[in-house]
Fold each of these.
Amino acid sequence: MTSQGGAVSLGEFGRIERFFRPLAVGVPGAFDLTDDAAVLDVPHDQQLVVTTDAMVSGVHFLPNDNPADLAWKILAVNMSDLAAKGAEPLAYSLVTSLPKSIGDDWVEAFAKGLGEAQRAFKVNLLGGDTVSTSGPLSLTITALGLVPRNRMIRRKGAKLGDALFVTGSIGDAALGLKLAQGALTQPVPEADRAYLLSRLRRPAPRLDLVASLRVFGTAALDISDGLVADLRHMALTSKVRLVLDVQSVPLSGPALRLLVGAPTLRRTILTGGDDYEVAFTAPADKAEDIAAAGQNAGIAVTRIGKVIDGEPGLDILGLDGAETDLGPGGWRHF
Ligand SMILES: Nc1ncnc2c1ncn2[C@@H]1O[C@H](COP(=O)(O)OP(=O)(O)O)[C@@H](O)[C@H]1O
Ligand SMILES: Cc1ncc(C[n+]2csc(CCOP(=O)(O)OP(=O)(O)O)c2C)c(N)n1
Ligand SMILES: [Mg+2]
Ligand SMILES: [Mg+2]
Ligand SMILES: [Mg+2]
C-alpha cells in the first residue's frame, strides 16, 4: 500500500490481485494472474481469431466518462470485431495505461464494469499489463476467438448476386456523442436521450448471430468508423461494387424523431460511426433464412443494398432513389 495525494493506494500488484484476479478465474491457464504469461488450449479442428482495439481519453471517450461504461465499451468493441468474423469469444487480455491521479476507487468501478461485460459476452480475462502514463488514460484489449478451421468470415468474399445486410440500427451512437458533447440544439425527450447515450456508451456486439453469419455470410465487417466508410472498406477489399440504399438503413425511434427537426443529421447517422453493428453480404436468395436467423437471435437484420456489376467501390442511393455523394466521410485517426 502506498499513500498518494493523501489517499491510500493498493499499488500495482494490490490492484491486480484485488480487482483483476477475480475476472480471470474462468481461465485455468491464466494462473490467477501470477505468472509471466498465460497458456490456452486451441481445439485441433478450430482456429484462433485475434483482434486488438484501443481507446484513448479525448479520442474515443470523454475524460469524465464513467469507468464501468469504459470497461463495457473496450470489451464490447473487441467482441464486435470477433462477432463480425463469425468467431466465438475465447478469452482476452487487457492493458490499462492510467495517469497517476487515478485512484483505487476508479479501478474498482472499472473492474466491476468489466465483470458485468464479461458475463454478458461469456468471456474471461487472460492477463494483461498495468502501466502508468503521463499522457491521457488509455485502454487496450486483445481478444481471442475460435472459429471452425478455415471458416473465419473475411471482409473479402462479397459476390455479384449477393445482398447487403446490417444488424440493429445505425447512427444512434453518433447522435449520442453529439448529445454528450452538448452539440444538439433541439430538445430531446429524456427517454430518447438515455437510449442514444446508452448506444454510445454500451454498444451491443452481435455475438448471438455468429453461427448464422458463418452459414450465410460471404463477407462481413463491424461498423466502427461509420456505415459509409466501412461499406467502402468491404467493397474495396472484396473488389466489388456495393450499392447502399439510404431509404432502407434501419433507424431507431429516437433517431427518427431527431431527424424530423434536423434532417441534416442524416449525414451524422450514415458517417458518424461507433455503431458496432455488423454489415455482411450473403446470397440474395437466402434473405428469408437470414431474417429467420435474426428473429431467433433476437437481432434485427435489415437488407440495405446489394452487390452490382462495376468497378470496386460504393454507390449511395439517397432518399429520392437518386445517386448521392456523402464525400469520404467516416472516422480517421490521421
Ligand atoms: N499498429 C498496427 N500494427 C499492425 N496492424 C495494424 C495496426 N493498426 C491496425 N492494424 C491492422 O489494420 C487492419 C485495419 O485495422 P482497423 O481499421 O483498426 O480494424 P477495425 O476497424 O476492424 O478495428 C487490421 O487488420 C489491423 O490488425
Ligand atoms: C470524445 C469522442 N470523440 C469522438 C468519438 C467518435 N469516434 C472516435 S474513434 C471512432 C472510430 C472508431 O475507433 P477506431 O479506433 O477507429 O476503432 P476501430 O475502427 O479500429 O475498431 C469514432 C467514431 C468518440 N466516441 N468520443
Ligand atoms: Mg481497430
Ligand atoms: Mg474494431
Ligand atoms: Mg472492425
Amino acid sequence: MISIKVPCSSANIGPGFDVVGLSLSIWLEVQVTIDTSITKSTTPLNCVITYEGDGADHVPLDADANLVTRTALYVLRCHDHRAFPPETRVHIINPIPLGRGLGSSGAAVVAGVMLGNVVGKLGLSKDRMLDFCLMIERHPDNVTAAMIGGFVGSYLRELDPVDMERKEIPLAEVLPEPAGGIDTGVKPPQPPQGIGHYIRFGWAKEIKAIAIIPNFEVSTASARAVLPQEYSKQDLIFNLQRLAVLTTALTRSPPNAELIFQAMQDKVHQPYRKTLIPGLPEILASVTPQSHPGLLGICLSGAGPTILALATHNFDHIAEEILARFSQEGIQCDWKVLEPAYEGATVAQI
Ligand SMILES: Nc1ncnc2c1ncn2[C@@H]1O[C@H](COP(=O)(O)OP(=O)(O)OP(=O)(O)O)[C@@H](O)[C@H]1O
Ligand SMILES: N[C@@H](CCO)C(=O)O
C-alpha cells in the first residue's frame, strides 16, 4: 500500500496575505492500493473511495466529484490516462477540519496531485506538481507550504501572454464538473512550467502555534468576496513593512515578542473579515505579550475562522482567554498546540 501524507497549513500569518504559509502538524492521509487482479473494473473511473474523519457525512465519494480524486484525474488526463488504473482503492483519512482556515482544500489538492503522480507512474518533481496545484488553488500560500513544508513565502510568476492564458482558464475547465463517472474525452489545459516561485524561511524551534478552531465554517470563497478591490497606499505599506520584519523575526532565538506582535498586525484582510467572524477585532486584541507572557503574536489563520496564536509557553492560559471571548459570542471551539511540519508532503510504501 502507498501512503500519501500532506500537512495542514495556516496562510497569511497576519500581514502576508496570499504570500506566506506555515505547514502544521495535522496530516491528511491518502492510502492507495491497486488491485491488479481486477483488469476490468465496474466502478466508474476504476476508483473506489472510502473516507473517514472530518466531513465524512458529506464529502462526495465519486471519483469525479471528490476534490482529492478529481485533482488526480486532472493530472492523469494531462498525461493521456483517461481514468485510474483498474482497480484503484483510495482510502482518505482526514483529521483537518474543513473550511476553518487550516488549508484543508490545499492539502486535498496537494494529495490529489501526488495521487495522480503515483498511480500514473508519472515521475513528476515536487516543483512540477506544484504547477498542477496552482492551476486549481490559485493563491500559492497553502499549497506551497503543504507541498514543501515549514514556513514558506511564495509568489506567482508573471507569465508570458500564452502561458498566462493557460493559467487564467476558468477553474471549471481545469476540473470539469462531475459527469457521473463518464469520461467526457476533453483534454484539460496543461499547467505552464514554474508558475510559482517560493523560498523556505527558518523558524525558531521554540515557537509553537496554538490553533483555536471555532465550530463553524467560513468558505475561502466567501472570505475573499468581502475583500475590497483596491487598497490605500498607507495600508499596503503598513503590511509590507511588517511582513519584511516578520519573516526574519520568526527565525531568531530567543524570539522578540514585542517585535513579532507588532509585525503580525494586518490591514489588508482581517479588518474586512470581521463581518464573518463574530467578535474578531476584540479577539485579536484580547491577548498581548504583556497580558499573556509567552505569546508572540495572534492572527486569523488563512481565511478563518480559526485563530492562530504563536507562543513559546503558557499555551493553556492563552487559549483559555480566546475560548472565553468566542464563548461570549455563543461560539464553542476546539484547540490544539501544533508544530511546523517541516517535511511537507510525503509518499511512502507501507
Ligand atoms: N480531504 C478532502 N476530501 C475532499 N474534499 C475536501 C477535502 N478537504 C477539503 N475538501 C473540500 O474543500 C472545502 C474547504 O475548502 P476551503 O478553501 O473553503 O477551506 P479550507 O481550505 O479548509 O480553509 P483555508 O483555505 O482558509 O485554509 C471543503 O468544504 C471540501 O469541499
Ligand atoms: N490567503 C488566502 C488563504 C485562504 O486559503 C486567504 O486568506 O484568502
